[in-house]
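Long-time lurker, first post. I've been practising inverse folding by hand and with some scripts of my own, and I keep getting stuck on stretches where the structure tokens seem ambiguous. Below is the full token string for one chain I'm working on. Before anyone asks, I'm not after the true native sequence, just a reasonable design that respects the backbone. If someone could post their per-position residues I'd love to compare against what I wrote down in my notebook.
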């Protein structure tokens, strides 16, 4: 590891990638070392969430999901598709936010670019979430709901991951200077989760509420676009609207620009403030 850390100072992009991949592998091994089921926990937790929320919303509150591409209506499958997309963003951004502080002792001894721990943690979480996405696709396959639009789904996963890593980097630098960032973002993401149409279709949101275009405000949420695009491709087996795609890409580009600005302004000497 020490040789890899020193190699990154040479400026080689290949050396940086090796360092990022090395840290990502370390994170994956460390996260489940002391557990009996290991990586299976990455599937058990979301599947348990799907079962609980499906019972609450489809049985108790009688929420109705739109029809699949094959005409069937399965609330659990519809919810699972949205949950996978949310989990990719939520877990990558939260883990990325803590990554610089977690690697602070090493960064104070040797030079490591501040984006390295964020990207490496994002890769490790992304690999876990790919397993979850694979189970979600298997569920769709069991319902015979499969189409060529699945081929576009990896691009959505990659875009959500990049968006999450960019947000995670800005938060990671912020938390170095303001430790309250972690608590603030935790509360914010709880609200964000319920403001994203994961458990309910947007049709349940009134178009107008006391003169406020409420449904349009929900569409301004970038995660609404990511979730809807994922469901269009995997659940409904149709192409998403061009507007939703452009909106999601615009948010991803804006997050990358924001991360770049943060890096140039505060991130290059962040180890001095850890």
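-- Answer (accepted) --
I ran through it position by position. Result:
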């Amino acid at each position: 590891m020490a040789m890899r850390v020193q190699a990154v100072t040479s400026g080689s992009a290949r050396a940086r990638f090796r360092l990022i991949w090395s840290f990502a592998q370390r994170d994956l091994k460390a996260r489940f070392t002391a557990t009996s089921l290991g990586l299976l926990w990455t599937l058990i937790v979301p599947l348990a969430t799907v079962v609980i929320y499906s019972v609450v919303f489809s049985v108790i509150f009688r929420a109705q999901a739109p029809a699949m591409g094959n005409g069937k209506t399965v609330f659990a499958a519809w919810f699972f598709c949205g949950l996978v997309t949310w989990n990719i963003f939520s877990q990558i951004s939260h883990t990325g936010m803590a990554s610089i502080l977690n690697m602070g002792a090493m960064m104070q001894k040797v030079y490591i670019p501040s984006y390295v721990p964020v990207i490496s943690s994002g890769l490790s979480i992304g690999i876990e979430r790919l397993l979850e996405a694979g189970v979600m696709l298997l569920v769709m396959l069991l319902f015979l709901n499969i189409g060529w639009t699945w081929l576009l789904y990896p691009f959505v996963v990659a875009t959500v991951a990049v968006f999450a890593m960019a947000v995670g980097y800005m938060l990671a630098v912020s938390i170095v200077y303001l430790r309250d960032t972690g608590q603030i973002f935790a509360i914010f993401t709880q609200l964000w989760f319920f403001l994203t149409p994961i458990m309910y279709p947007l049709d349940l949101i009134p178009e107008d509420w006391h003169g406020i275009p409420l449904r349009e405000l929900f569409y301004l949420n970038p995660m609404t676009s990511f979730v809807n695009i994922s469901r269009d491709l995997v659940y409904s087996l149709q192409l998403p609207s061009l507007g939703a795609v452009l909106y999601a890409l615009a948010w991803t580009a804006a997050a990358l620009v924001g991360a770049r600005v943060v890096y140039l302004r505060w991130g290059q000497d962040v180890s001095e403030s850890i």
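A couple of notes from the structure itself: Residues 75-102 form the longest helix (28 residues). Residues 2-273 form one domain. Happy to go over any region you disagree with.
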